[in-house]
Amino acid sequence: MSMSLRRVQSLNILQNFQLSSRDVSRNLKRDFSLLSVSGTELGQSGLLSVTGHRSPFRTYYKHEVEVSKRIQWKRPERVPCILPEKSGDLSGLPEVDLNEPPPLFKDSTEFQTASETVKRIFGLKFQTSAERRQAKIDAMTKQVKRHKLDNKSVEVKIAKWTAIIRNLQEHTTKFPQDRNAKADLKEIIEFRKKRMKLLRTLDYRRFEWILETLDLLFKPAPSSHERVERKKSMRWLTAEYIEKVKEQKLNEYKEALNSQKIGFLKSKLSTMEAIVEEEKAFGVIPSFTEEDLNQVKETLRLKIEEEEKMHPSHQVEKEVY
Amino acid sequence: MAAKAVVSRGASLLLGTCVPCVKTNASKFKVRRLVLDTYLHMYFPEYEYIYAHDPQKICKTGDSVLLKKLPEKLTTLITHEVDRVVYPLGDVTDPVTGKKVTFNHYRESQDAETELYGPLPTRFQYDKAPPRGWQEDKKDLTHRETYIKYNDDGKDQKYAI
């Protein structure tokens, strides 16, 4: 293992240290040994314990160990863009009765007067897949139609694309090798997203209504594309962690100060009263008026009430016979 | 960036576009300014981001908002306050007639057309629909900036893509 000259020198300095003073060497051993980093101490307090003198070149390793314990990075798995998680489809297609005839035959008198076997053969179950898909699209567009002949409004178009997308998503799970379907699916998803974005700028309330009725989730695209990298992610996670520690420390400090408030106010009140009494005894105009004293009493009362609300341990327990 | 400081320092009234922001009592705005390139004799846009005091969060992402300069800074970031929302996004009013507009036609004419065909109860109705923003943070996440997921911590990251 190759060692830089600087590091060798620094190690020599350390050895000299150890030889010169026994106490210092003991301190160094305690501080720099990796075994001294106890898991429980770190996990509970979440703070670095700084004791004694530290040298930067040796603390680096300790620091690395501690960081890996607190901040962990795991590369997220790639989610294909055609899956419902990415496309924003929160639910599937509406249910279609496969024993029903296709919409074209529904109102025909010949079909209605036909025998049961004929009706069964003409049901959606025995029709082509295109017919079944059309039935699903019809069921979807029915939820948002303005009038009976509406097939060109924005909401109907979006409902239609949604039905096609969900149908293709089902298809691609069954046949993952169908690359043409996957390519089509990606294209339609992107097309729908673009139209939704446009609809939002033109008619916000209708956009929200469509999200609710068709059960879609709309996430805008991020403003900048950031590649997923270990080093960058670790930096972001560290910044997040530091913020958390800062907040925790601040809250602890605030609590510590708040707990001293009642005692301080009591002592303040007693000293103020003593000063006033003494000044009265000497015949001097008192430096505190009644109002000042009352103000302190009021704040003290409020503080005590607040404390009781927060920690209701002072309540008298009722005896049960 | 000497040119950029001009916008926030100079004019007392600004027209900005609202952009996603996490702050609870303030909104972030993008203000555009055209700067002359003396070499090309052409104007090019430059953008500056400004935080304005908005305690009720009336501004949605994409709204065009009139901003007023505060006599004193509220914080190091917040220098302006929201005067009024000039153009609410997706809720356009025709300035000549004062009627509400969707796409390139009036809402009234759209409703009249539906009436002719015989309206269905499934249709969208402006009178019965809730006000803008009722799906915020539920199914419409445009009020926050999204990011590409960089860490798999096992939790549900709502704003990650």
From TrEMBL, chain A:
Family matches, as SMART domains: Ribosomal_S15
GO BP of this protein: mitochondrial translation
Top-level taxonomic group: Eukaryota
One GO MF term attached to the UniProt entry: structural constituent of ribosome
Keywords assigned: Mitochondrion, Ribonucleoprotein, Ribosomal protein, Transit peptide
Pfam family, one: Ribosomal_S15
Chief localization: mitochondrion
Zinc-finger keyword on record: no
One of the record's GO cellular component terms: mitochondrial small ribosomal subunit
Cited InterPro entries: Ribosomal_uS15, uS15_NS1_RNA-bd_sf, uS15_ribosomal
Family, as annotated: Belongs to the universal ribosomal protein uS15 family.
Record protein name field: Small ribosomal subunit protein uS15m
Organism, scientific name: Thrips palmi (Melon thrips)
From TrEMBL, chain B:
Any Gene Ontology biological process: mitochondrial translation
Keywords: Ribonucleoprotein, Ribosomal protein
GO cellular component terms listed in the entry, alphabetical order: mitochondrial small ribosomal subunit
GO molecular function: structural constituent of ribosome
Taxonomic superkingdom: Eukaryota
Protein name (database record): 28S ribosomal protein S17, mitochondrial
Organism annotation: Thrips palmi (Melon thrips)
Gene: LOC117642730
